[in-house]
């Protein structure tokens, strides 16, 4: 994948937006990597069901299989195709915060034919609150997406930063201007009877627990 000349596509007009979505979708179908905007930071994406594309994503970031990428989806109901044993408190969080900056680590469906890395039987799922990326996801299906940066570098919040770090590895860069959020998603492990916050991000513990406390539930923060 290294040595690809990336195509930067703006989304300022309806025509540009449609062309960018088309090009990004076609690149994914070809097994290539793309950079796309989200409501948090820019992401680098691959077809979640294309083993070679996911491996190329990890290689582009300089990341090993021990750090599998999350999966972005276009609708809350898609989580039931990817995950099992989703507890009630997790569904309450989905109802309140999807689309939005909340990633849930769930038990994955064992029948899925994919290889995201060393997931230990889990999958991290998020529905982003960004219309351009949601339209891409509607065409491609679930995408493996990680922040658009080299491991150890700050996450890209615009297309220029993403191109500087990953331009040689991606086929298409969808440019939608500055990220509206700029802060990564909050990650919550929902594989147990009580949820655990694995990474604090755009959603605070107080915001999350305000939804769960009326249900008699709450989250803890991993030490």
- The level 1 CATH classification is Alpha Beta
- Radius of gyration equals 17 Å
Report the span from N to C terminus.
38 Å
- How many structural domains? 1
Enumerate the spans where pLDDT stays under 50 for 5 or more consecutive residues: none
What is the molecular shape? globular
CATH architecture: Alpha-Beta Complex
Strand content: 15-25%
Number of strands: 12
What does this protein structure show overall?
One of its GO terms (molecular function) is tRNA binding. Belongs to the SUA5 family. It is found in: Cytoplasm. This is L-threonylcarbamoyladenylate synthase. Its EC number is 2.7.7.87. The chain has 223 residues and is α/β, with parallel strands linked by helices. The protein has one domain: DHBP synthase, CATH 3.90.870. 30% of the residues lie in helices and 21% in strands. It has helices at residues 14-29, 51-61, 79-82, 88-97, 131-140, 159-166, 205-212; strands at 7-10, 34-36, 43-47, 71-72, 83-84, 102-108, 122-126, 143-147, 172-175, 186-189, 196-199, 220-221. Strands 1, 2, 3, 4, 5, 6, 7, 8, 9, 10, 11 and 12 form a twelve-stranded mixed β-sheet that branches. β11 (196-199), α7 (205-212) and β12 form a beta-alpha-beta unit. α1 packs parallel to α5 (131-140). The longest helix has 16 residues, at 14-29. It starts with 6 loop residues before the first strand and ends with a strand. The model has no long low-confidence stretch (mean pLDDT 95).
Notable features of this structure?
single chain; 223 residues; alpha/beta; DHBP synthase; twelve-stranded mixed β-sheet; 30% helix; nucleotide-binding; DHBP_synth_RibB-like_a/b_dom
